[in-house]
Amino acid sequence: MNPEHVVEVAPIIVGAALALIHLVSLARYIAADRETRASIRQAFRIRRGWTRLAKMQGLSVTDRTPTLLASLTTKQGQTPQPRELTPTIKTAVDRYGVIVTTNTLPRVGLDEMQKAAPHLANAWRCARVSVTPLAPGRLRIRAVRSDPLTLPTTLRPSGQAPEDLGSWDLGVDEYAEAVALRMANIPGITVAGLPGYGKTSLINGLVCRMAPSDAMQFAVADGKVSTADEGDYADMVKRCFAFVGDDLAHANGLFKKLVELRRERSSNVRRLLGVANMWHVGPSAAWPLVVLIIDEAHTYFRDYKGSDAATKRLAALSAENARLVEDLVKKGRSVGIVVILATQKATGDAIPTFIRDVCPVGLSFAQKTAEAAVAALGEDIRNWPDANPINLQDPAYVGVASMVSQGRAGFTRVRMPYVADADAATVAANTARLTADPVELLSRMLPGPPLSKDATNVPAS
Ligand SMILES: Nc1ncnc2c1ncn2[C@@H]1O[C@H](COP(=O)(O)OP(=O)(O)OP(=O)(O)O)[C@@H](O)[C@H]1O
User: What is the top-level taxon of the source organism (predicted)?
Assistant: First the structure.
């Protein structure tokens, strides 16, 4: 091919390549859902208007030093023009909006971008824009068109065991970023919120996602019902090695059994797992992560007042229940026992403060008063008014909770996906064969006679 030929065919090749790129983009656009298509159009507008907008927002710098090329090409007697530089951008989309990646410039960095974020949100017609560092010299700008917290989502459990049992997917935050709950080395979680805002759904959803793993075992104490076939956990009960209702003595039996398990695990963890902390090797079928769910937790810790024999008995059981659960929360972490306590108001009368205050993770759905929000999330929530769960009192926020951010200051609001009861029931039924009593599992690993099992209301399979 001679040079003339190259000149002739080059535009055809470039044109064909461009047409192909446009065709692929068009096919992607057609295949996308309605919201993603809106995001694609928005990303196009952002790219097209960026240079102009960046200059108007002061996100540009003037470079007065001529480049080598400018020095060589400028005519004699003339001085090279200074260049106005703006950060370059790349965009990606999802159904919530656009993710812009950009570079920093001298004097245009994270602070400047964060200050400009509300103006970028206005210019891009977005509900929110956040700027976070991505790598040295690189930033990530997240622009969401509508508030992801008010867009209900649904999860259909895959039925597959998650790869990492130390991290539970919760949902998305106000920027539609995925939020995970770090479970490894967490001894206790409190879940609070007004009735009907999603506490039980959240727990059911978590159980559904973890149930396909044989390295997870669940026990439930539900203070709202008397028997396993009533209430919110009736479908999940097949996947629980123990279930108790509102009977304090039954709950006492279950908590005692788990404290005994905690003791046996603590004294044997080094010998059987070769480590002092189970999380160094992770949960397994033989040594599963034991999740104790205590729903309507106030039922079990109520302060009974009265001098008659029946009330005294209940008061003694209640006090002992609190002591036993305190043992699990304070000492269960390293041997793979985690307690989830759900109640409407996480005040000291519902969950004793000596238990509540050692639970490192707190989640709160809508709350009625500032005091209830503080009880659920700690004093610091007063410094973060945007995240305060008293602002979640709206039907649009059913399924939205505020939680202490793990690994950084402040709080994160999370929209949890809804798991339909029928899907939860299917997962429980399909994974029921994986249910095993962790006391028996430990017995099998130990020489000698089996460990004693306290009688609990274990559901019939
Ligand atoms: N993540 C969610 N997304 C959308 N809707 C939800 C979500 N979670 C719960 N809901 C709706 O709210 C209803 C009540 O939820 P749930 O039973 O979990 O509330 P709760 O806080 O446990 O109430 P209670 O304290 O009375 O037990 C559900 O039946 C469902 O219709």
Answer: Bacteria
State which of 169, 170, 179, 197 you would mutate to test the pocket of ligand 1, scoring each by most atoms of that ligand within 8 A of its C-beta: 197
Which atom number of ligand 1 is nearest to the Cα of residue 400?
A: 1
User: Tens of pLDDT along 404-444?
Assistant: 877 777 899 999 999 998 999 999 999 999 999 999 999 99
**Which positions ≥6 away from 423 have C-beta within 8 Å?**
155, 156, 157, 208
**Distance between CA atoms of residues 196 and 194, nearest Å:** 6
Ligand 1: atom nearest CA of 232 is 17
The whole-model pTM stands at 0.80
Q: Annotated binding residue at 418? A: no
Residue 146 identity: S
- 397 in contact with ligand 1, CB cutoff 6 A: no
User: Under a CB-based contact definition with an 8 Å cutoff, are residues 119 and 143 in contact?
Assistant: no
**Is residue 180 exposed (0-12), middle (13-18) or buried (19+ Cβ within 10 Å)?**
middle
* Residue 414, ligand 1, Cβ within 6 A: no
Give CA–CA dist 203/60, Å, rounded.
Answer: 48
Share of the chain above pLDDT 90, in %: 63
Segment 282-333, tens digit of pLDDT: 999 999 999 999 999 999 998 888 888 889 999 999 999 999 999 999 999 9
